[in-house]
Write a structure and sequence with these properties.
26% strand; mainly beta; extended; disordered N terminus
Length: 537
């Protein structure tokens, strides 16, 4: 509506209201009785006689058209911004009420967040969607340049003094971090603080940078004199999890570090428990109701089809979907027909979303078969799909290749310091002279019975070739087990990570040729599915 039209409407409204209250030969618009009294009281109006009423503690209000009674107030709802169109409709800030509707005042534009003068509003400059940088002004609908000695940092949406701005020091986006200051375009730290990549810190008492920039204390520990203190009482150090944990009731470290109860699970006295109507389906899936969960229908890992529902523990198929063989499927989310018929995702831990394969939890999909793997533990996919731990005696721990449990990195190689005569024991001694053999981490003159010296290290390594992955059944290069093998009874046997379980049995993963469920030697929290009739020791 044009400005003069709005003002014309307001003028007519004013005239109408004045006419209502003029009392030209009619009754008064608002009549009231006394606040208290025994009878009626007569009152004489300018153009006639009006009869008052009897009051009992308050004034009665009567509004005549075109006025409306809005909670005891006579309101002209065509123009009242607090009762616009009808009682209780309040116009937003900057709006006025015209003809019973809320509109922006003349000269302002209606935006989703209110009415604005886009000619000079820095947050709505020229139009509703253009905001000037912090420090710029809006003049005649255009953002004006940054103040003197400042530059425009578009990505940061601000004008910045690059010589003194700690968030843009020497260049846009260069952040001096916590405690840092910017002097002449260079990030500086106070004298008692150490400059780290993410800011300035007092490394003597800062838990996140304790002793140096790289050392962070566990959650729950404090830093004093540059050293991390002990975990609080009733908690243990869970180094890989980065926290002090009460394993009696910590859902992520229940009974032992890293043992998660999963979604819906509760840790009670070191054991994972579920609600009465749910069962425990492992740390990835947690507690599920198998009576109505299509991913666990009737039992853990029993999945209904993408178009099926689960009722009373049974899968029920829908209709009207793409036919792939005998199945009725929705290829946008069907695991066996993801994106197209026959394109199957990982059958146990896979997901299908928008026709693309993925995985549950923190697992990742790799390879042409869309297999789900654990980047944290899988030696064939350690940290990502394409990184395999290739060194002898290595495995995957927390997404990085490391020496297997019981082995130690010495001069770039993983060795068994319990039996290696060149690096024997915790001090990695070289055994020589009359004690030139190494057994149980000590230099000895002869190996104990049941473990006789063999040809390994010229007969000086006292080891068990039935269990040693570096000398499995012999001492040659062909007797070193590969990263996906363990030593069982003197033979290198294939294994794979048991996904979705912390203890045996692990029925979801340890199936087929890999049906032997075993704790990984030296790391009971890692479950290995072994292609053998026995477990490695």
């Amino acid at each position: 509506m044009k400005a003069r039209q709005i003002f014309a409407s307001l003028a007519l409204v004013s005239i109408a209201i004045a006419g209502v209250f003029s009392g030209c030969g009619g009754s008064a618009d608002v009549t009231s009785g006394p606040s208290s009294g025994a009878g009626a009281t007569s009152g004489t109006g300018q153009g006639g006689t009006g009869q008052g009423g009897t009051g009992q503690g308050g004034e009665a209000v009567t509004c005549q058209a075109p006025l409306t009674d809005c909670d005891g107030k006579c309101s002209f709802t065509s123009t009242d911004k607090d009762n616009c169109g009808e009682c209780g409709i309040v116009c937003a800030a900057g709006e006025i009420c015209v003809d019973g509707g809320c509109v922006c005042a003349p000269g302002q534009v209606t935006c989703t967040d209110g009415c604005f003068d886009v000619a000079n509003d820095a947050a709505h400059c020229g139009n509703c969607d253009t905001a000037c940088l912090a420090g710029e002004m809006c003049m005649s609908g255009k953002c004006q340049g940054c103040p003197t000695n400042q530059v425009a940092c578009d990505a940061q949406k601000t004008c910045a003094d690059l010589s003194a701005d700690p968030k843009n020091c020497g260049g846009c986006g260069i952040d001096c971090g916590v405690g840092g200051t910017c002097t002449n375009g260079l990030c500086m730290c106070p004298a008692n603080l150490v400059s780290c990549s993410d800011g300035c810190y007092n490394v003597t008492n800062t838990a996140s940078h304790c002793g140096n920039c790289q050392t962070a204390c566990l959650i729950g520990q404090s830093c004093a004199s540059g050293k991390c203190g002990a975990c609080p009482m009733n908690t243990v150090e869970c180094t890989n999890q980065g926290a002090c944990a009460d394993i009696a009731k910590d859902n992520d470290n229940c009974g032992q570090c890293g043992h998660s109860c999963g979604p819906g699970g509760t840790c009670t006295n070191g054991n994972c428990t579920c609600a009465a109507n749910s069962i425990d389906c492992g740390p990835i899936f947690g507690c599920v109701n198998t009576s109505n969960d299509p991913a666990h229908c009737g039992s853990c890992l029993t999945k209904c089809g993408a178009t099926q529902t689960c009722g009373s523990g049974n899968c029920i198929c829908g209709s009207g979907l793409l036919a792939c063989g005998q199945d009725c499927v929705d290829t946008s989310k069907d695991l066996d027909h993801c994106g197209s018929c026959g394109n199957g995702c990982d059958s146990v831990y896979g997901t299908c979303s928008s026709g693309k394969c993925g995985c549950v939890g923190n697992l990742k999909s790799c390879g042409g078969n869309n297999d789900c793997v654990d980047f944290q533990e899988d030696p064939q996919h350690c940290g990502d799909c394409n990184t395999a731990c290739t060194g002898a005696g290595q495995y995957c721990a927390a997404g990085k290749c490391a020496c297997q449990p019981k082995l130690t990195l010495v001069n770039g190689a993983c060795v068994d310091t319990n039996s290696n005569p060149q690096a024997c024991g915790p001090n990695k001694l070289v055994c020589a002279g009359n004690t030139d053999k190494c057994q149980s981490g000590q230099c000895v003159s002869n190996c104990n019975q049941n473990i006789s010296p063999d040809t390994c290290s010229n007969g000086r390594a006292c080891l068990n070739q039935d269990t040693d992955p570096l000398h499995c059944g012999g001492c040659g290069n062909g007797d070193i087990c590969d990263l996906n093998e363990v030593c069982v009874n003197g033979n290198c046997e294939n294994w794979k990570v048991g996904l979705g379980c912390n203890t045996c049995p692990c029925g979801g993963s340890c199936t087929g040729n890999f049906n032997q469920c075993c704790p990984y030697p030296g790391n009971s929290a890692l479950i290995a599915c072994v292609n053998s009739n026995s477990c490695p020791q």
